[in-house]
Design goal:
The chain is of the alpha+beta class. The protein is built from 2 helices and 5 strands; from the N terminus they run βββββαα.
Length: 80
């Protein structure tokens, strides 16, 4: 099973799911399907979050993996 790392803004959380925004689409992703949450501080102190999910979850939720590197993401504080 293949996985994708998707840079997101976390807009909400419950005990079962995380509401994320990938720059184009907002979606609830079940915590049981999130393989890893990566939270780092961006260059300007903003929090940069990425989630790793199976590719089928990303496709089902309509989330897109952006073609940018983490250094560019840090430079602009995680916003797309």
């Amino acid at each position: 099973m293949s996985s994708l790392k998707i840079n997101v803004k976390v807009r909400g959380r419950t005990s079962l799911a995380m509401l994320v925004f990938d720059g184009q689409k907002e979606a609830w992703v079940p915590l049981s399907q999130i393989q890893e949450v990566i939270e780092e501080s961006g260059l300007f102190g903003d929090e940069v979050t990425a989630i790793v999910v199976p590719d089928w979850v990303a496709a089902e939720k309509g989330l897109q993996q952006l073609q940018q590197d983490d250094d560019t993401l840090d430079l602009f504080g995680g916003d797309v």
